[in-house]
User: What shape does this take?
Amino acid sequence: MSVVQFENYRQNPSPWVAPQLAVIVPSYNERDNVALLYEKVGAALSGVPFEFIVVDDNSPDGTSEVVRGMAQHHPNVRGIRRIGRRGLSSAVIEGIMASSAPYFAVIDADLQHDEAILPQMLAKAMAGDDIVVGTRYSGDGSAGQGLSRAREAGSRFATRLSSLLTGQSLSDPMSGFFLMRREIFDQVVQTLSEDGFKILLDIIVSAGRFHALNGKALKIGEVPYTFRPRHAGESKMSPIIVVQFLGLLVSKLTRGLLPTSFLLFGLVGGLGVIVHMGTLWITHERLGFNFFWAQTAAVIVAMTFNFMLNNELTYASKKLRAGATSPAC
Ligand SMILES: Nc1nc2c(ncn2[C@@H]2O[C@H](COP(=O)(O)OP(=O)(O)O)[C@@H](O)[C@H]2O)c(=O)[nH]1
Ligand SMILES: [Mg+2]
Assistant: This one.
């Protein structure tokens, strides 16, 4: 903004309207997607005062700089840049906490979710639904070309597993596309897990239990849509995320008695015992080391293995990288 523009603005400030809806966009390496998503969301939500909050984990591709540039032109765009942290769920939680809008929606940055259904989702929430989920698996919805066959089978299996937890016959609790009243979120935010990809499932289970304690049922609405292929960039889904998801399921099934981090730590420790015994056997029996040196080798190998796996899995959200002075992403 030039000095003249700034002075003009000071004399005629445009009226400010509080956002009614916060659109939360978790992002990691999405520089070629965020601006297009903003345009599409703006077109879909025309007339709705909304803010667009991108929570980026210091993406190496410079997504945060792109968002900063967008915010120079659009007053309803905000960027949160997190340093030394990773994780979809924790990014979403942080974005929601940074907004005061009475409703929020969570949508992926890669244009796989169909933003055109946002007004319908908002209308359902305003009419009384506590949570409205964009679903790929009911009505006119479909996973379209957005998922490979293996991923669709995995997603459907995970959906069945999670109905054990929710006790609800939801068609797509694994969806990353949902809209809700923030009041419901505020009631359960302290019990949510920051690890992993499946924040919606976590919210449904936690809010369902909270409501049950008060003798009420959670009202969940669904709006079908067709899942699209990713626009640009690559998926961040990985086997580590799948293991974290299983940890979340057990943690929620035991009502937090076995936290995800404890389960992952235990899993790594158990595998470490196998690595230790295997190294001991090879060095002692096969390579002919005496017991002292075989045991020393086994301890060093198992210790290193445990550290590396814990760094990748248990502490993925603050993973250490060689050469970095602080947790790097
Ligand atoms: N802030 C943040 N966003 C993430 C992270 N991992 C994934 N995302 C974002 O979450 C959304 C879904 O991720 P994506 O890789 O498309 O997963 P997929 O659709 O299951 O293959 C995208 O907008 C990603 O950029 C992360 O560690 N931090
Ligand atoms: Mg995606």
Observations:
- The domain at 3-233 is CATH 3.90.550.10 (Spore Coat Polysaccharide Biosynthesis Protein SpsA; Chain A).
- The chain is about 45% helix and 10% strand.
